[in-house]
Amino acid sequence: MTARFIMAIAGVTTCLQGPFALAQTVQEDNLSAPSAGLDIPEDVVLFGKRDPNVRKALALVNGEVITETDIEQRLALVVLANGGKVSDEERNRLRLQVLRNLIDETLQIQAAAAKDIKVSKEELDENFARVASNFKFSPDGFAKYLKAQGSSDRSIKRQIEGEVAWSRLLRREVNPFINVSTEEVTAIVNRLKADKGKEEFRVGEIYLSATPETTLQVQKNGEQILEQIKKGGSFQAYARQYSEASTASVGGELGWVRAAQLPDELASAAQQMQVGQVAGPIPIPGGYSIIYLIDKRQVLTADPRDAVLSLKQLAVDFPAGTTPAEAQRRANEFGEAIKSIHGCGPVNEMATKIGATVVENDIQARNLPPQLQTILLQMQVGESTPPFGSAQEGVRALVLCGRDDPQDATAPNAEQIASQMEEERVNKRARTYLRDLRRDAVIDYN
Length: 446
Prior knowledge:
Triger factor/SurA peptide-binding fold; 4-stranded antiparallel beta sheet
C-alpha cells in the first residue's frame, strides 16, 4: 500500500482511530493493604522502560481519554500513507499533529452525541468492510494487516465515526440555514460565459494559520512539510493531518477555481506552476498555504487532453542483467526499425520481425505521462513516438492509430453551481463551529 492508502480509505479517509480507555476502580481498602512480605522501598525508582501495552492518558477532552496507544495507531496509518519513509524528526511533528486531530475528532463526536446523533456499530462495520474490500482484504484480513503495521481496525473505525457523526451534525445544524439565491447562481453562469477561454486550476491546499507571534515557526513547519512532500510524501495525507481548512477531510482539494477566486498570492503562484508541482509556504492573510497544482484547463473550452487516442504499443523486453550500454544499443536498433512504420497496419508484421509484443488500447490523453501527452497530441495518425523505456523494463514505442477530439465543454447547470456554493458556505460555517467547540472545551494534558 502506498500514499494512496489514506486517499482510498474511503471517501472516508479520513478513516482512522480511536478507542476509549476503561477506567479501573480500586477499593479503598486495597490502597492500604500491607505488602505481605514484599521488600518494597518507600522511595521507588523505576529502571527500564514502561510496559508499551499500558495505555497512558495523554489528554482528557471534556473528560474523555485520548491515550498514547490511540496516537501511535493513528500515526502508524499516516506513516503508512507516506510509504513508511518518515524521519524521526518528522515522526515527532506528526505525532503532535495527530494528537490535535484526535482532539478535534473527539469534540466532533461529542457535539454530535449531544444532539443525539450516533453512529451504530453495524454502520461502522459496514464502512470498514468497504474500506477493506478496496484493498482486496476481508474485514478480518484487513484488521490483521493493520495490526501488523502498528495500527488497528478500531483506529480506522474511530475516524469513520468522527466523519460520519460530524457530517450528520452539519446537515442538521448548519445546512438548513444555508441559502443560495437564483440571482447568485445566474451571476455565476454569466461570469463563466464571460470567462470562456480563461485558465482555471484544480488546486490542493494545505492552510496553516499564523499570528504575528507564531509566523516564523509556522513558516518553518510549512517548509518542512513541503520538503517531505517533495521527497515523495502524499500531499493528500499531509493535508488531512496539517491543513486547518475545511478541505482537509478531502485531502486539501479545492476543486476547479479561476485565478480571481484565489487570494492574489495563490493565484500568482498557480499561474506560474506546471501540473504536478507543489509550491509554498506562501504567505497569505492569516497564515501560510502550500499549494499543489493537480490540473489546469480553459473555462468552457475543449481540453486537447480529453481526446481519446487509439494506440498500438510495440515493446521489447530486455533480459535480466542487461547493461546500460547493451540497452542503448538495442534501443537504437528498435528506433531504426520503427522509423519504417507508416500507419498501424504494418505494426504486427514489424513486431514479428524484431521480436516485439503488441498491445492495443484506447486511452484518454490526460491519463498518459505528461511527456507522452505532449508528443502524442502533436502527432498525426500513423506516426510513432520516439523509443522510451529503461534497461530494466525494456524499450517501447506508441503508434497513433486514431484520435477522437473532445467537443467544447458546457457550463455546469444551475443545480451543480448551487450545490457547490452551498458546500463552500457549509464548510465555512463548519470551521467556525469547530473553533467554538475548541474554545468551550475542557482539555487536560498529561
